[in-house]
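Subject: design request, 285 residues
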C-alpha cells in the first residue's frame, strides 16, 4: 500500500511539472514571437504610417489606436464595474437580487466577443449614432470586460473580514464612509488584479472593434473620439491574412505581434506596480 508521504510527494511533483510546463509553453511562445518579430522593429516601424498595402512603413496609427481603445474602455468599465461590485457586496449582500445579478454577470462574461461586436454595432454605431469610432469601440470593449471587473471587485470585498466593517461602524462611521475609508482601500490591490486581466482582454480583441471602431488604413491619427482608428489586433489580422506580398507582410505581422505583447506587458507592469504601492500604503495605514 502506498504511504501518505509517497502520495504527497507524487502530487507535489506532478503539480511542479505542470507549473513548469505552463512556464515553458509561455516562454516558447514569447521566444518565438521575439525571434520572428525583433528584426522588424526599428524607429521607422514604430513612428511612421503604413505604406504599400501595409507591407511597408510603420504601425504608429495602430499603436495609438490600440492605446485609445484600451484606455477608453477601461475609463468606462472600471468605475462602473467597481461601483456595481460594491453595490452587490456591501448593499445587496446575499439577497435574491444579488444572486440574479451574479448569474447574469457570469452569463454575460461567457458570451463570445463577436456577439459583443454585433451588439455594439447595433447599439452604439447605429442607434446612438456614434458611427465607427473610438467611442463606439470603447463602449463595446467596456461591456466585454465589465463582468470581469464586477466579479473581481465583489470577490475582493468578500475576502475582507466583517470585523473591519463592524469596527468602523462601532467608531461611528456610516456605511458609505466605511466603504470609502476601510473596505475599498484594503480591497483595492485585488481590484487592480481584475483591471490587469481586463487590459489583457481588451488589448487583444479583434471581433468587437471590427464592427465598431477600426479602419483598414488611415493616413493620419484620430483627432477626436468620434474618429475611426487603426488597432494592432486588426492590423495584425489584415497583414497576416493578406494575399499580397506575403514575404513582405510576414515580418511586419510578427513585429506587430511583438509590439502588442510589449504594450500589454508594459501596462500590466504599471498596474502591478500601482497595486504594490497601494498595498504597501494600506499596510502602513
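Subject: RE: design request

Done. Sequence follows.
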Amino acid at each position: 500500500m502506498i504511504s501518505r508521504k509517497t502520495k504527497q510527494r507524487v502530487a507535489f511533483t506532478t503539480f511542479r511539472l505542470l507549473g513548469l510546463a505552463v512556464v515553458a509553453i509561455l516562454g516558447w511562445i514569447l521566444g518565438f514571437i521575439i525571434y520572428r518579430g525583433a528584426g522588424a522593429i526599428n524607429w521607422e516601424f514604430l513612428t511612421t504610417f503604413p505604406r504599400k498595402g501595409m507591407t511597408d512603413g510603420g504601425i504608429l496609427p495602430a499603436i495609438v489606436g490600440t492605446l485609445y481603445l484600451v484606455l477608453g474602455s477601461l475609463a468606462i468599465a472600471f468605475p462602473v464595474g467597481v461601483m456595481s461590485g460594491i453595490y452587490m457586496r456591501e448593499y445587496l449582500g446575499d439577497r435574491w437580487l444579488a444572486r440574479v445579478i451574479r448569474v447574469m454577470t457570469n452569463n454575460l462574461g461567457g458570451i463570445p466577443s463577436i456577439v459583443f461586436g454585433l451588439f455594439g454595432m447595433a447599439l452604439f454605431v447605429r442607434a446612438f449614432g456614434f458611427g465607427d469610432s473610438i467611442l463606439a469601440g470603447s463602449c463595446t470593449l467596456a461591456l466585454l470586460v465589465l463582468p470581469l471587473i464586477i466579479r473581481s471587485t465583489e470577490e475582493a470585498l468578500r475576502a475582507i473580514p466583517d470585523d473591519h466593517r463592524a469596527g468602523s461602524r462601532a467608531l461611528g462611521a456610516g456605511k458609505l464612509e466605511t466603504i470609502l475609508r476601510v473596505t475599498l482601500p484594503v480591497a483595492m490591490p485585488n481590484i487592480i488584479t481584475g483591471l490587469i486581466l481586463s487590459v489583457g482582454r481588451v488589448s487583444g480583441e479583434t471581433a468587437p472593434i471590427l464592427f465598431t471602431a477600426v479602419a483598414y488604413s488611415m493616413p493620419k491619427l484620430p483627432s477626436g473620439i468620434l474618429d475611426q482608428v487603426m488597432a494592432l489586433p486588426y492590423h495584425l489580422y489584415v497583414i497576416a491574412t493578406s494575399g499580397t506580398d506575403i514575404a513582405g507582410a510576414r515580418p511586419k505581422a510578427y513585429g506587430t505581434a511583438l509590439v502588442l505583447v510589449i504594450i500589454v506587458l508594459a501596462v500590466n507592469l504599471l498596474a502591478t506596480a500601482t497595486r504594490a504601492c497601494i498595498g504597501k500604503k494600506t499596510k502602513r495605514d
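The chain has a mean pLDDT of 85.
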